[in-house]
Amino acid sequence: MTRLKPWLPVIGIAVFAVLLLVVAPAVLSMHWLNNLGKYCCWAIAAVGIGLAWGRGGMLVLGQGVFFGLGAYAMAMHLTLESTAPGSLPVFMILYDPLASLPAFWEPFRSDAFTLAAIVLLPVIVAGVLGYALFKRRIKGAYFAILSQALAVALAVLISSTIRETGGDTGLSDFKYFFGFVLNDDANKVMVFMIAASLLILCLLAVWQLNRSRFGELLVATRDAEERVRFLGYDPANIKLVAYVVAALMASIAGALFVPIVGIITPAEIGASASILMIAGVALGGRASLFGPALGAMAIGWGQSSLGSSWPDGWVYILGLVFILVTLFLPMGLSSLFGKAKGLLWRSRGTPPDALDEPAPVLEPVGDGVTK
Amino acid sequence: MLAIPALATAAVLVLAGCGSRAGDTAEADAGTAAAGSCIDTSGDTIKLGFLNSLTGGMAISEQTVSNVLHMAADEINADGGILGKQIEYIQEDGATDWPTFAEKTEKLLTQDCVAAIFGGWTSSSRKAVKPVVEENNGLFFYPVQYEGLESSPNIYYTGATTNQQIIPAMDYLAAQGVKTLFLAGSDYVFPRTANAIIKLYAAELGIEIVGEEYVPLDKDDWTTQVSKIVAADPDFVFNTINGSSNVGFIKAYYDAGLTPETTPIISVSIAEEEAPAMGHEVTGNYASWNYFQSLETPNNPGFIERWQAYPDSSGVTSDPMEAAYISLYLYKALAEAAGSFEVDDINAAAAEGGITVDAPEGVVTLDGENHHISKPGNIGRINADNQFDIVWSSDGFIEPDPYLEGYDWFPADVRDALVAAAG
User: Is the Cβ pair A172, B131 closer than 8 Å?
Assistant: First the structure.
């Protein structure tokens, strides 16, 4: 049992991978597979949030910024790919019959540039921003407000540049995905597989980071930043890495969201979208490996299915669940497993397994946010 | 760590899968449509989807459309249904969120297998629905006046296109001797496109555009923009603002001392429902629509009476809800002419021509080619009861011309580019 224990997360990931990559395409209809692909995108962003917030204590309230960078890079590429050569995207002709293609669109014609932009843009933005913030030791509520404000700012910027970016209406009507016809079930399954595989890869990456020396330093920074500093490490660098990784994951999530959902609008990257991402992570359990992904997927599913049955009611249900979880399970639904296990062991009079591990890893001393 | 190479291999295998690529045009055109529709006609009911924003910012307008669709379905069911089948409707919430509109359209078409979908309001919602209905070869009936320059084999438009609402309004202004015009609109597809057209036509009519201002749909503060109207002192204000942002505009307009006597407003989205909700008397201002509650036609009194008696009624009738009411009857007429619920049969019946609906605004005829309907043009002036006194009516019904082909001031290359993009 004890020899198996460190490998339990990998077994979990493997089971999850089989469920997503083998079982789901076999049993789900195209509609639900597509929806599951969308939840996978939110889950990818959530895995990053789990790293930055759950493990690193940085309340990233504005991951919509990075989600948006990836999404708009991809959407611009797909829009140009779907536009006849020599022609403009339809919305540009509509708003200004004499318009020409804005210069910043031009490089997105290239497949390679687009893929590079999806990876490098969030890394550069998060790198510069994170460096400036963490070196100045900005944290807690100030950091949260700042990151939230950025998401709002990007959404407003896109809304107000309707001629260049499609504004509030967003970008849609994509016909091709890197040469593949999107209106083809085989290709839709392919895009889903890419999203699901990347989710699995992100989980593996975070699992690896968590058990590495870096992962321990990150948790240490979350729980006692000053002590880490006294030990000779620079907490700013540790936080910066987690922040950049989270940004990269959000960007990849946004980029895949576009071909799966078929439309991107500023509403999907603004304040409420960013908060919904955080809500999923909190619900699932921010410090656990699977909690953020499963929480984000659960919220996505709730939105599609409960939102259909009770359009007015679903938001209240979400709110209520959120309040209950925050009150009674501050470490999210995934902490239920640990508690259940603890209860089971106690009733049998045997010490719980969990005590073998260093206690503070999963339970931060404070809430990790206001400190 | 074996999992990573394994996954990468799996991903490559999947990528090399059998989906069609951009070059394979035949396959691309056929797409999923070739799989055939899943509309179930075996029972004695036919499923239709209603897709309206019941939550979010547009709910205030779209709830009425949803209610009138329910009323029309009840009426048709009481009258024997469509092709002998009772309508079974599935109501979905678009939640004023465009990706949600796309997702729900896909759900209605592929999960619920509805024969047609009715709803939408903002052009943004229509633009989100359009690729999905085209991909799945479904039908979408869109009931609101819009900016034109669009057509789709999978969409039927029962609201006005530009030449049935905006061009009549411009003609009316020119006939009134208007020399200067100020454009105020919400910042999204419809006002931007409408104003691009208005500017082109104004140049033709010799009307000078003395200003153009936009405010996002969800913002209500028009103070700065209205001060620019005061400074420009136009003969008329052309208002393409949508939704509750109009309340802020009207407030700023009267606060700045503007009045309908000196600087009247002509609107294309303030109707009987909205006029009393402006928070200020709007008496004396104008609106351009096809249907008004005050319209004297044979069918209108009965329509108003049935609506006022309907449990979820808002009490007044208006253009978009009347167009929504038409949309369900248009579908009935099409299905009965086709003798089928299949999309291709319905489009074939439309193409044959001669499909009419005896609507509250008069007998409207479907154009089988562009899927729009003929409509009377009317300009109304708001009276003290927040009803409209009709001050101008078009000479008969105006045929729909979404791409403005009958107007040579509209640049031909732009039209060609848009037609080409629409496929």
Answer: yes
The full length of chain A comes to 371
CATH superfamily name and code, B45-160+297-373: Response regulator (3.40.50.2300)
Beta strands per DSSP E along B33-124:
45-52, 86-93, 117-119
Q: Is B213 on the interface with A (CB under 8 A)?
A: no
Site of tokens 């009516």: B393
Helix (H, G, I), strand (E, B) or coil at B43: coil
Of B382, B325, B387, the C-alpha closest to B357 is B325
Residue B307 one-letter amino acid: W
Amino acid in the structure at residue B24: D
What's the half-sphere exposure (Cβ side, CA atoms, 13 Å) at A153? 8
From residue A156, give the alpha-carbon distance in Å to each of A121, A129, A241.
19, 19, 28
Dihedral angle over CA of B316, B319, B325, B331, nearest 10: 180
Cβ atoms of residues A13 and A200 within 8 Å: yes
Strand partners, B156: B141
Residues in Cβ contact with B237 at an 8 Å cutoff, skipping those fewer than 6 apart: B181, B182, B183, B184, B229, B253, B263, B264, B265, B266
Q: Could you report the per-residue pLDDT of A85-123, keeping only the tens digit for each?
A: 888 898 998 888 778 899 999 999 999 999 999 999 999
B135 touches chain A (CB under 8 A): yes
d(CA B203, CA B199): 6
Cα–Cα distances (Å) from A135 to A140, A161, A182, A246, B160, in that order, read 14, 33, 44, 18, 58
Hey, what's the torsion of the CAs at A272, A276, A279, A284, to 10 degrees? Answer: -170
β pairing state of B356-359 and B362-365: antiparallel
ipTM: 0.88
Residue B382: helix, strand or coil by DSSP?
strand
Strand-strand pairing, A171-172 and A263-264: antiparallel
User: What is the three-class DSSP state of B187?
Assistant: coil
Q: How far apart are the first and last CA of chain A?
A: 37
3.40.50.2300, 3.40.50.800, 3.30.300.30, 3.40.50.1820: CATH of B163-289+402-422:
3.40.50.2300
Q: Which of A202, A211, A198 shows the shortest CA–CA distance to A8?
A: A211
Dihedral of CA B247/B251/B252/B258: which sign? Answer: positive
- Residues forming beta bridges with residue B92, ordered by sequence position: B51
Up-side HSE of residue B294: CA atoms within 13 Å toward CB? 19
Which of A:175-194 have CB within 8 Å of B? 175-176, 179-181, 183-187, 189-190, 193-194
Confirm if A173 and B98 have CB atoms less than 8 A apart: no
Q: CA A139 to CA B273: how far, in whole Å? A: 50
Mutate to test the interface with B, among A88, A100, A263, A312 (most CBs of B within 10 A): A263
Query: What angle do the packed helices A185-211 and A213-223 form, to 10 degrees?
Result: 70
Residue ranges in chain B modelled with pLDDT below 70:
1-18, 23-36, 423
CB A37 within 8 A of CB A260: yes
How far apart are alpha carbons B142 and A168 in whole angstroms?
A: 20
Cα separations in angstroms, A186 against A80, B60, B254 = 23, 40, 58
Segment B16-68, tens digit of pLDDT: 555 788 766 544 444 444 445 789 888 999 999 999 999 888 888 899 999 99
On whether any CB of chain A is under 8 Å from the CB of B103, the answer is yes
Query: Under an 8 A CB cutoff, do A172 and B102 touch?
Result: yes
**Residues in contact with A234: Cβ distance below 8 Å, sequence separation at least 6, in sequence order:** none
Residues 6+ apart with CB under 8 A from A31: B106, B107, B110, B111
Interatomic CA distance for residues B392 and A185, integer angstroms? 52
Domain boundaries for CATH 3.40.50.2300 within chain B: 45-160+297-373, 163-289+402-422
pLDDT at A144 over 60: yes
